[in-house]
Amino acid sequence: MRYFFCTTQCRETFIEHPTLYSTYKKHSDCRIKTRALRLATQLPANSADEIVALVKKMMGIKSVSIDSDTLSVSYDLRELTMTQIEVYLGRCGYQLHQGWLHRIRRGWVQEREETELANLAAAPIARCNRSPKGR
């Protein structure tokens, strides 16, 4: 069986979470996340406009803004993860702040997103609200 993808980003998401594509979910089931990513250095105005334009090209981005050295991004988790945003920024030559607190926070957010995606992809479990007979 062959699969064709519209972008590399879609291919990466499929490889990481194939069950997201095999389960039916309503379109209104989007998961909008808003994150603030601190960059390693403060950017000049022309670089700030460039980074906003680059991030807006990614599929799933809802809004992007930059203030001094902080990039604020809103995105749909079903289409894009923070890990993918970080990798893309690195490929474009922009590095995120590497302080220990920032790395721990990003790692925690990435773990939460992976857990949420795994839960979205999981089949619903049948539940019964009745107590067992005889009790």
Molecular structure report:
By secondary structure, the protein is α+β, with helices and mostly antiparallel strands. It has a single domain (16-21, 29-117), classed as 2-Layer Sandwich (Alpha-Beta Plaits), CATH 3.30.70. The chain is 43% helix and 16% strand. The protein has helices at residues 8-16, 18-22, 45-56, 82-91, 100-121, and strands spanning 32-38, 61-67, 70-76. A 3-stranded antiparallel beta sheet has the order 1-3-2, covered by helices on one side. Strand 2 and strand 3 (70-76) form a beta hairpin. The protein is elongated.
What is this entry, summarized?
This protein is 43% helix and 16% strand. The chain has 135 residues and is an alpha+beta fold. The chain has a single domain (16-21, 29-117), classed as 2-Layer Sandwich (Alpha-Beta Plaits).
